[in-house]
TrEMBL record:
GO CC terms, sorted: Golgi membrane
Binding of Mn(2+), residues: 165
Protein name from the UniProt record: Galactosylgalactosylxylosylprotein 3-beta-glucuronosyltransferase
Gene it is expressed from: B3GAT2
Active site: 251
Organism annotation: Oncorhynchus tshawytscha
The protein's required cofactors: Mn(2+)
InterPro entries: Glyco_trans_43 (IPR005027), Nucleotide-diphossugar_trans (IPR029044)
Enzyme class of the recorded protein, top EC level: transferase
EC number(s) given by UniProt: 2.4.1.135
Gene3D superfamilies: Spore Coat Polysaccharide Biosynthesis Protein SpsA, Chain A
Amino acid sequence: MKSLFYSRFFILLPWVLIVIIMIDIDTKRTPVRSPVLGRAGGAQRHDRTRLPRANRSALPVIYAITPTYNRPVQKAELTRLANTFCQVPRFHWIVVEDSSVRTELVASFLSHSGMPYTHLNIFTPRRFKRTGMPRATEQRNTALSWLRSHRSRKDVGVVFFADDDNTYSLELFEEMRPTRGVSVWPVGLVSGRRYERPIVEKGKVVGWYTGWRPDRPFAIDMAGFAVNLQVVLGSPRALFKRRGSQPGMQESDFLKQITKVGDLEPKANNCTRLGAEGLTRGGVPPNPLQEHLVGQSWVALTHYHSWRCPTSAGSSEREMVGAVLMRASFITALDGFCDGKFLKSSGLTDLHVLK
């Protein structure tokens, strides 16, 4: 009798254990939650994942054209840009090397960047590399040719010239994205000034606040404008001039082929917003850089490594490599930083470093 009992017990035992294990797994798989919270949580997850993706697919693509060339800081410069660009939705990075071949350094860097990109190259003849001659002309024109060959009238986008020695805040890209023709905005730390900007009256650009040749047709930095993709495609002969162009005139030479000053689209609250508050001063050009470069600031900072400051040990000057701390919603400029202060000798006495 006992043997019959044990035989049946050992036959049923594995099946009982299997049932217990399955019940335990099923319990862990189904979280316990109240019906109300469960629906709310589900709706929240839906809003955060699916809706933004659907919305992003309808955004115009921003095509950033970046000329670059081999030098010790090249990878550091590209890394800084990539850390910003990878956070911008619907973004396509066109990197053009001044080289006879596409180098392994840039190719490997871009392949690990995690963003859509196009890697091009064209070598600038040495006769065009003399001091005082326009730079990156061939590289920008090569990128424009690529766009005209690989994009059509059905594509929606904005073209922006993002030099690799500049720094950009994330808000700038959302500001330029709805550009219909050519949009413009202020640029900080350029031409020896704390900022430059288009002067706007009644929504129209009427002049330029700049440190160099305000008589230029478009007295603006390369970092200060964006062009609708269809304007680029619809103007196939619009290129950056090599012959007959002067340094600092490339922007004007290009823009006058595709637009007029009166047709420019001022961004940044009629080109008055540069710092955190974007305050204007009645009757005089605003000086927004008296505010911290934080909060909603989206200014494009140019030539950030060109300032000088003395060492703490003496009065001799040394070149300082500027640093810029980027985050998703703020930007802190540390240009010409020495001993915790911006120096009067750099002309940046209105800027403050955040500790």
